[in-house]
Amino acid sequence: MADLSWAAADERAREARQAGLQAKKDEQPANTTKSYSAKQREWRKWCQTPRAGPDGTLYTWPDGELVTPDKLAAWLKEDILLRRTKATKQRSDKAKAKAKAAVTPAQEDALLKAQILAEGLGEPLAEAIRILCEDQEDYVPPATVSQEEDGILLTRSTVDAYVAAVMELWRVQVAHGSKNTDNPRGAAVHGFLEQRGRQRARNDRESYQDRGMDGIQAGYSTTEWLAIQTHLLNTINITPQNLRTRLDLLLGHYYLLRGENRRKMELADLSLLDYPLSEGTTLCSCLVVLLRDGKLNKTARKEFMGSLRHRDPLLCTQGALAQLLFWRWHIAGEPAPNFRRRQDWYRIKVLVGQDREQELSYSVQLQETWRVFGAVGLTTAKKTHLPRKAGAQDAEIHGTSLTQISQAGRWNQSVLCLAYLTHLPREFMRIVAGFSKTPGDYFLARAVYEPPTALQSQLWPWIEEWEARFEARARRCQWAQGGLDEDDLAGDGFLKLMRRLRIVLLQDLAVLQPRFPSLPFYAYAPFSSNEWAQYAHTVQAGVADATEPPSLLLQRAMPELCSLVENTRAALMHNGQRLAGQLASNQQELTTQLLSQLATQQQQLNQQQQLLDTLLQRRLPITITNITGFLGGPDTNTGPDTSIGPDTSTSPDTGTSPNTGPASQPMQSPAGSQPSGLPHPPCVTSLTKVHTVKDVWREWKEGYAGQPAIQELEGQWGNRWRVGNKIKTQFCRRKVIWDTLLASIAKGSSEEEAVSKLEQQRNGHSINWLVDRLRHRRRNK
After folding, report:
1. Burial level of 479, CB count in 10 A (0-12/13-18/19+)?
2. Which of these, 186, 430, 580, 745, has the minimum number of CB atoms within 10 Å of its CB?
3. pLDDT score, position 469
4. pLDDT grade for 452, boundaries at 50, 70 and 90
């Protein structure tokens, strides 16, 4: 019973694994599924083909098409790594039939795709194959199995594509119960891939392949980029699809979008985001695109990218979108979108072909890009993918950080950006729009002039009608009541975008009219009216004479000043903090010295109090003179002797005064005390800072900066006036100079000569330097 339960559980787990693999396969891109299927058929055919053994007998693989590490390595060695791509040339019917018999289904698909492209471009088949190899990473060129040395070896990425197809087959086999769980992509496969990479590098070097195709110069310069846009606008009358191609290239350059993302983009993916006034003095709006599909987004997560209005209307993505929509809905006769139901307009593409709900084919996109690049003389290997690469390089050249470029190109995603933020790299968008990365620098001279309402109302007049219905829907009104049957936030956002694109179209075409007077737009209303002529003249004159706000001019013209002010502010703050720390340290040291002096004085007072208590206990006479002399007060013994003690009248017994005995003599000062009548030592906490030898000598002889002369202090108080470590240290260092001067004077020099001689020895150095020099000289004697 337990075995049956375990078997049932194992079967359920296997079924779930098979369902998961099938779900992953169902969600694969169509091209990937088609490519994998063809390569897996080649694998099965190779496994079933008999081969000769060492003894000459024929045999086949006993395990059939089961994928193992050894069989995958053998397939690469015996088949895939021997294939070479050859240039197509005229061959005989017999050779064609032989080659056709050897062509696999995958090669047939690749060859058919190349033939269609060659016919559209008018180029040889070999050139079409080369273009597809360079422009599409998943394209596998048609190859023939040959032992000859002519032809080009398959690239490592092509060989890896065959390995990936067989790996998918191995996962399916394991899910169906195969016991071969060893990963076939082992050390042998990795060795073959690395070897092929080195072989192709040597082959390219020996055959003198163009090394600039994948280098830094494999793109277009700023001049070439302007030439491309100029050519597209100048030839609109001949090829109206240039409006579509122009928008396609701008989306690739400024949004860093792959060609696949641009072809799949729909009107419902577009919206408008207004930034606050802190961006600049003019309104700053961002055209936002929602991306939920593509090669780098296989899980259909929401990604966003946007662009600001460019400083140059020739390079403005919003202006190019407005011009394309005006052509489609005003000139080409395409009906305006119907917002009644989502299914009525959600499938409308931005880049339309013959059917506006059908995705533009890759071949058409490549042919148009190829034609434009050829018209301006641009040579490049990549075509549809080139704007994404060139846009990233241009942003890096203008100072955009790698983080911002990665965020713009969706090369690095985080949960925060994907789930909560708008994920719009504002620094990147500012720089590629022609502004600096600093907020507040956004200013468009043409955006200052608001178009008249009469001109705006002539562009897409159905906007107001649908806006009324969306407002009614907000009040929960149905279609019959003038509203809508269902909410549609995307439709509401698209109408707001279209209202803004009215203004963008009028402002941009007003600036572009002198440069491109033959644009077909000017033959249609509202661009053919007198009101438009007046508005265009106002905008053109204003843009020609426009001056940016002084704050922006100062910020752009004097970035060094801004940096200097910031650096000065930082230096002042640092110095202020340092000085505050020094003051706090000095205050702490001074407080310590004062507390030490107070403790010393308190100790002396305690000793005096004890002496007074002893005298009183012995009932000895204490005169005012003795007390004041002991306390260091002024000498008061100038008048009659007034004693404190017993009665001074004549004794009745002896008739003599009690003061006639030895006890009546004046009280002597204790040992070590100062003479009677002299004050306490002055409170000197530190010596004054001096800069010359003359100041040092003046400090000794006369006193300096209001302090008493050091010579007098030493003669009267000895070392008792130096209280605290700081004053003692300063005195000892300063005494080196005093001793030197006194010794020179003792030898017969005058004070001026001694000071002058020592000043010459200082020779402009500091006093501390002189002290150290004298000490060193004294030690060496």
Report:
1. middle
2. 580
3. 93
4. very high
Q: Both ends of the chain: CA-CA distance in Å?
A: 109
Residue 316 phi, psi dihedral angles, 5° rounding: -90, 120
Reported as a pLDDT band with limits 50, 70 and 90, residue 616 is confident
Output the six-digit token pair for 722.
């130096």
**In this structure, which amino acid lies at residue 315?**
L
- 3-state SS, one letter per residue, for 200-262: HHHHHHHCCCCCCCCCCCCCCCHHHHHHHHHHHHHCCCCCCCHHHHHHHHHHHHHCCCCHHHH
pLDDT above 90 for 327: yes
DSSP state of 670: P
Query: Residue 551 pLDDT > 90, yes or no?
Result: no
The rounded distance, in Å, linking the Cα atoms of 383 and 401 is 26
Strongest mean pLDDT among 411-425, 429-443, 495-509, 574-588: 495-509
pLDDT band at 351 (very low <50, low <70, confident <90, very high): very high
Q: How confident is the model at residue 217 (pLDDT cuts 50, 70, 90)?
A: low
Please report where in the chains the tokens 């200097």 appear, as a residue. Answer: 564
The whole-chain average pLDDT of the chain stands at 79
Query: What is the per-residue DSSP string for 757-770?
Result: HHHHHHTT--HHHH
Contact between residue 105 and residue 41 where contact means Cβ atoms under 8 Å apart = yes
> pTM for the full model?
0.60
Instruction: Give the number of other Cβ atoms within 10 Å of residue 151's Cβ.
Output: 14
Q: What is the three-class DSSP state of 392? A: helix
Distance CA 734, CA 469 (A): 95
| Tokens coding 376 | 């301006």
Give me the residue label for tokens 């109090």. 609
Distance from C-alpha of 340 to C-alpha of 491, rounded to nearest angstrom: 9
Mean predicted confidence (pLDDT) in 325-350: 94
So what's the pLDDT on residue 717? 84
Determine the 3-state secondary structure of 153 from DSSP.
Answer: strand
If DSSP codes are grouped into helix, strand and coil, which group holds residue 266?
strand
645/626 Cα distance (integer angstroms): 13
Burial class (CB in 10 A: 0-12, 13-18, 19+), 605: exposed
Contact 505, 323 (CB under 8 A): yes
3-state secondary structure 105-139: HHHHHHHHHHHHHHHHHCCCHHHHHHHHHHHCCCC
Which one-letter amino acid corresponds to residue 214?
D
Residue with tokens 């273009």: 131
pLDDT at 145 over 70: no
Task: Report which secondary-structure segment, H or E, holds 644.
Answer: strand 643-644
Among 426, 433, 419, 491, residue whose Cα is nearest residue 270: 491
Cα–Cα distance measured from residue 168 to residue 683, given in angstroms and rounded to the nearest whole number:
94
Q: In this model, does residue 7 exceed pLDDT 70?
A: no
User: CA–CA separation, 726 vs 731, rounded Å?
Assistant: 9
Peptide bond connecting 526 to the previous residue in cis, omega within 30 degrees of 0:
yes
Where does the pLDDT of residue 675 fall: very low under 50, low under 70, confident under 90, or very high at 90 and above? Answer: very low
Task: Using the structure block, give the residue that is written with the tokens 């301006």.
Answer: 376
Give, in order, the Cα–Cα distances in Å from 131 to each of 75, 126, 373, 431, 584: 28, 9, 13, 32, 75
